[in-house]
Amino acid sequence: MLKTETPAQDHATLDQYPTADLVNVFVDDQVKAVDAVRAAGPRIAAAITAALPRIEAGGRLIYVGAGTSGRLGVLDSVELNPTFSWPHGRAVALLAGGESAMFVAVEGAEDDVEQGAADLASVKVEASDVVLLLAASGHTPYVLGALRAARAAGALTIGFSNNADAPVATEAEIGIVLDTGPEVISGSTRLKAGTSQKIALNTFSSGLMVRLNKVYGNLMVDFRATNAKLVRRAIRLTVFATGAEEAQAQAVLEQCGFHVKTAIVALIKQTSVDQAQALLASARGSVRDAIR
User: How far is Cα 157 from Cα 51, in angstroms, rounded to an integer?
Assistant: First the structure.
């Protein structure tokens, strides 16, 4: 029996716990998700390193999953644009059952290996793409169909599983095992297995974006302010990075469409917005290199 399906022996009387104890058990069990991702750290680092040249060559991130795992892939893909200005078309998410499965569970869809391959083919996967395969069990047919189609197309495949020796991890070029063990509610992998996948995806995509020069120091500098909150954030980050007065930072930001990277370079180099953009382009988007 898969670890994720095995009943947790230490909580056999869970339904009889007082509510306060029930809450503590659920919260405490989540710590194992962090431990599992930490143990997989070297594999996640290897995945970032392998993905970088393909993404720099224009490849896409393609997320594939079913159920909770698939929804976590959708979430990670959607958040890359507002956080890092990552183009929508270069973060693609495929979910068993289609877009409606994001809101209403389509449980049988995960059993269709042919549909996984067909859905991947529908986005015209190429060798420069990076395909992230997500399955807590590691055996989901839909995900395996997509994995095999991705490998046939020459794309880089990275498999995330919560069970060791599962095909999603062993058949992918880079397998990442998040060994979270049995769930408090047996088989409910939306618990710590899902948490570990969320952490792993956050870590992978954020690490990749750092390597792509989307971050300066530890500041989120490659976003565009599209609402009042983000306008305030853009001003605050620009002031912090440059030491400029708030009014000066806002004035420069207004000239460059509130693009923080550009404003930082313009203020530090004491140059025009156009020249700052040229410096960034020649530095492949690196603020640190542009201000040297």
Answer: 9
Q: What is the pLDDT of residue 57?
A: 97
Question: Looking at domain 3-212, does it have CATH number 3.40.50.10490?
Answer: yes
The residues that are catalytic are 79, 110
User: What are the residue ranges spanned by the domains of the chain?
Assistant: 3-212, 216-291
For residue 108, what pLDDT is reported? Answer: 87
pLDDT for the residue 105 = 87
List, in sequence order, every beta strand (DSSP E) within 17-90: 61-65
pLDDT at 106: 86
Give residue 224's pLDDT: 78
Give the residues of the chain that fall short of pLDDT 70. none
SS3 category, 130: strand
What CATH number does domain 216-291 carry, 1.10.1040.10, 3.40.50.720, 1.10.8.1080, 3.30.470.20? 1.10.8.1080
User: Which pLDDT value is given to residue 121?
Assistant: 97
